[in-house]
Amino acid sequence: MRIFGALLALTLGACSSLPPAPGASLPARSSVQDFTLEGRFALQIKRAEAPSEKAAGRVYWQHDRAGGADRLRLSTPLGSGLAEVHFDKNRAVLTTADRQQRSSEDPARLLQDATGYPLPLTQLPHWLLGRPQAGETLELDEQARPSRLISPPWRVAYRYPDTSPDALPQRLDITHPEIELRLFIEQWQSP
């Protein structure tokens, strides 16, 4: 898989899911601040002037809201490392499987330079939990859970493992006019 596909998957991600770890209880979605998740992603890039590109693999994500930092690790479907990115609102460092690094004071700029797309890296932790920011619109389902978040030109659709009002999403479909990313969350953890 080319690094291009791996980098795109870092910013956005068929399919059964695994239950939470034995003995683990998940907090109510509204109380989650920090989290760790593991899952899979499927990505498709559609450009008018070129054939579509596809990528798939695994994702591991740690979000530390109090510390203001995120760490994402991408791997192939079989677990071989592709890339890792550490970021906060002021800086991002991308490390590829061959240990080459890129960094930027602007996390979104780093990924745009690496991929050619303006990707919403710093918005993703909010989107995962269905927490809209200024200029975004959130629609709720019958259980008052996030069902769709709109942040033009991005759209995020949520699916849940059950009907619990506090359920954390199990799948996110993140779309843009040229990008389709599916993130399948197999395990959530929150301290």
Structure description:
- Helix content is 12%, strand content 44%.
- The protein is built from three helices and eleven strands.
- It has helices spanning 3-11, 107-115, 124-128, and strands spanning 35-47, 50-64, 69-75, 81-87, 92-96, 101-104, 137-140, 146-151, 154-159, 171-176, 179-189.
- An eleven-stranded antiparallel β-sheet has the order 6-5-4-3-2-1-11-10-9-8-7.
- The N and C termini lie far apart (34 Å).
**Helical run tally:** 3
Q: Helices and strands: which structural class? A: mainly beta
- Give the low-pLDDT segments: 1-24
The radius of gyration is 16 Å
Distance between the termini: 34 Å
Task: Summarize the helices and strands and which ones pair or pack.
Layout: H1 3-11, E1 35-47, E2 50-64, E3 69-75, E4 81-87, E5 92-96, E6 101-104, H2 107-115, H3 124-128, E7 137-140, E8 146-151, E9 154-159, E10 171-176, E11 179-189
Antiparallel strand pairs: 1-2, 1-11, 2-3, 3-4, 4-5, 5-6, 7-8, 8-9, 9-10, 10-11
Keyword list:
191 residues, mainly beta, eleven-stranded antiparallel sheet, 3 helices, disordered N terminus
In a few lines, what is going on in this structure?
The chain has 191 residues and is mainly beta. It has three helices and eleven strands.
